[in-house]
Automatic annotation (TrEMBL):
Belongs to the glycosyl hydrolase 9 (cellulase E) family. The keyword Hydrolase applies. One of its GO terms (biological process) is cellulose catabolic process. This is Endoglucanase. It catalyses: Endohydrolysis of (1->4)-beta-D-glucosidic linkages in cellulose, lichenin and cereal beta-D-glucans. SUPFAM superfamilies: Six-hairpin glycosidases. GO terms for molecular function: cellulase activity. Its EC number is 3.2.1.4. Residues 1-21 form the signal peptide. Keywords: Carbohydrate metabolism, Cellulose degradation, Glycosidase, Hydrolase, Polysaccharide degradation, Signal. It is an enzyme of class 3 (hydrolase).
Length: 491
């Protein structure tokens, strides 16, 4: 018996090693990560729509303001268009193209630009009215009380707007960043569109800086945006973030001066270990560090120091390490939807590794020097975990591999497609599909779910939205990450 158990564990361990050693198809994963965004589209869908189970939706968005606010993306598994995370999603998609677009196959670069344009076209509408920014479409309370296809929406499509002098520095600053970054992504393929984006980025930033404050402090929008996408961490980081992207897009001294002179007063040294749709500090520091590493602007050295301090916390061998990892090796941050942290931190590691490589530098983490190769190897472990090299052998990207979540928390995916079931499904009639244990009938290819908890455990449960719901801002940075590994599978 003892001998047979030894053989069992030997062959079990060997089989697990062979599974984990199987190379991933990063090109396939890249294609699917971009395709996901077509499943999140709002508005009138084009002829070349590839997620065929989706249909037109939200075609009257904006009518209460006599505005066309159609288009854009639903942020996750619901049918609301939240401007704050949509702006961040757009910035990260554009940054993916700026840093890694040359590594993408031409078809996927085109698809990535299409995904960026879909969002930018909407963001341009949100700032088209002087001294006003439209920050959201859809009442989240009525939306979340229904389990309804976007094509059937009969919930309140309330429009939330902020008029000057009321502040919206966070959303306007993120919109400025998104349009400025996107202007760089389109610079070679569509110079006219690029110029339009940059001009409007400056306009959005002027609104953000002129009327300083958090958008969720406005009584007119607070009940709609909170607690979903409140500004929990302050608006100051978005001002620096927007200015940093405008500096990158224009190479202008005005925005360089802004970053230099406002860094302290806007809290550039605060919360430097965070990055996501609400807190831009770590991303801001990595972005600005490029100029310092290249020897162009020494006055921004504090941003570089903060970026490297953050990256040192990710390396277990360093004295400053304090990041949590699951037993299986995944970056873990409390609060749910954990893969939003893993994908965006991995993105920053790869971007900084590029900057280090180009300038032949390393990071001094006290007792350890960290190279570009080290950052890339650590990033690869996160990517491979997400794609299936984890204790459950489960791909957290829907449609990638043979074993992936089947019951994701997503209305359109879980309800019968309007193409197969054209009859209207009312608000509460969708509950039977939500409560069903059957797999979702429509595969939202490329969607990355919230992911496992701190113990690497994931139960394929539609109701557990913290783990089973995909979001646009989980996928967006992963596009750049996968582009890198598709071109460099063995860093």
């Amino acid at each position: 018996m003892a001998l047979s158990l030894i053989f069992f564990f030997f062959f079990f361990s060997l089989s697990m090693f062979l599974v984990s050693a199987t190379p991933h198809d990063y090109n396939d994963a890249l294609s699917k990560a971009i395709l996901f965004f077509e499943g999140q589209r709002s508005g009138f869908l084009p002829q070349d729509q590839r997620q065929k189970w989706r249909g037109n939706s939200g075609l009257s968005d904006g009518w209460t303001y006599n505005m066309d606010l159609t288009g854009g993306y639903y942020d996750a598994g619901d049918n609301v268009k939240f401007g704050f995370p949509m702006g961040f999603t757009t910035t990260m998609l554009a940054w993916s193209v700026i840093e890694f677009g040359e590594m993408m196959p031409s078809e996927e670069l085109r698809n990535a630009l299409v995904a960026i344009r879909w969002s930018c076209d909407y963001l341009l509408k949100t700032i088209s009215h002087p001294n006003r920014i439209y920050v959201q479409v859809g009442d989240p309370i009525s939306d979340h009380n229904c389990w309804e296809r976007p094509e059937d929406m009969d919930t309140n499509r309330k429009v939330y707007a902020v008029d000057a002098p009321n502040p919206a520095s966070d959303v306007a600053g993120e919109t400025a960043a998104a349009l400025a970054a996107s202007s760089m992504a389109f610079r070679s393929s569509d110079p006219g569109y690029s110029e339009t984006l940059l001009r409007n980025a400056v306009k959005a930033f002027q609104f953000a800086d002129s009327y300083r404050g958090a958008y969720s402090d406005n009584a007119d929008v607070r009940d709609g945006v909170c607690p979903f996408y409140c500004d929990f961490d302050g608006y100051q980081d978005e001002l620096l973030w927007g200015a940093a992207w405008l500096r990158r897009a224009t190479d202008g001294d005005d925005f360089l001066d802004y970053i230099q002179s406002n860094g302290k007063t806007l809290g550039a040294d605060d919360n430097i270990n965070e990055f996501g749709w609400d807190n831009k500090h770590a991303g801001l520091n990595v972005l600005v560090s490029k100029e310092v590493l290249e020897g162009n602007v020494e006055s921004l050295e504090s941003y570089k120091s903060s970026a490297e301090s953050f990256l040192c916390t990710l390396i277990p061998e360093t004295s400053s390490s304090h990041i949590e990892y699951t037993p299986g090796g995944l970056i873990y941050r409390p609060g749910g939807s954990n893969l939003q942290h893993a994908t965006v931190i991995t993105f920053l590691e790869l971007v900084y590794a590029n900057y280090l490589s180009r300038t032949s530098q390393t990071i001094n983490c006290g007792n350890v020097y960290v190279s570009a190769q080290t950052l890339r190897q650590r990033a690869k472990k996160q990517v491979d975990y997400i794609l299936g090299d984890n204790p459950l052998r489960l791909s957290y990207m829907v449609g990638y591999g043979n074993n992936y979540p089947q019951r994701i928390h997503h209305r359109g995916s879980s309800l019968p497609s309007i193409k197969d079931h054209p009859q209207f499904i009312a608000c509460k009639e969708g509950s039977i599909y939500f409560n069903s244990t059957d797999p979702n009938p429509n595969v939202l290819v490329g969607a990355i779910v919230g992911g496992p908890g701190e113990d690497d455990v994931y139960v394929d449960d539609r109701a557990d939205f913290r783990k089973s719901e995909p979001t646009t801002y989980i996928n967006a940075p992963f596009v750049g990450v996968l582009a890198y590994f598709a071109a460099n599978p063995n860093p």
